[in-house]
Amino acid sequence: MGLAWLSFAAGAFYTYFIAEKQNPGYGNFTWSGQVTLFVLFVTCMVFLIRQNRDFLSQWRWNPRFAICMLVIGLHLLGGIAMYLGHLGSDWRTWL
């Protein structure tokens, strides 16, 4: 988790402070923030599942785990919708 947060901090620094300002649509230096955020997202998912392994093996109800999974699932669906929106030719209309 510590390495994932550290890499995200470095990627966010590149995205916010070094990214190209003249032509932001080119995406120079913005991919580092997006990729490290994805790594952090997957690491947090693995951490959450490992922390609740007992509840998953016994099929016991844990409301905090269910809320976390719901929020992560909604976040994932929003990311998929944004990705699919960028596949079209008029993706700039989403902005």
Protein structure class: mainly alpha
Largest sheet: none
Mean pLDDT, as a whole number?
A: 82
| SSE ordering | HHHH
The percentage of residues in β strands lies in under 5%
The count of β-strands is 0
Note poorly predicted spans. none
What oligomeric state best describes the polypeptide chains here? single chain
Principal-axis shape: flat
From the N-terminal CA to the C-terminal CA, the straight-line distance is 32 Å
Radius of gyration: 17 Å
Helix content: over 70%
Our count of domains comes out at 2
Alpha plus pi helix count: 4
How do the strands and helices of this protein lay out in sequence?
Blueprint: H1 2-18, H2 31-51, H3 53-58, H4 63-87
State the main characteristics.
95 residues; mainly alpha; 0% strand
Polypeptide structure, described:
The protein is mostly helical and 95 residues long. The protein has two domains: 1-51; 60-95. The chain contains four helices and no strands. It has helices spanning 2-18, 31-51, 53-58, 63-87. The radius of gyration is 17 Å and the shape is flat.
Concise synopsis of the structure shown:
The protein is built from 4 helices and no strands. The protein folds into 2 domains: 1-51; 60-95. It is mainly α.
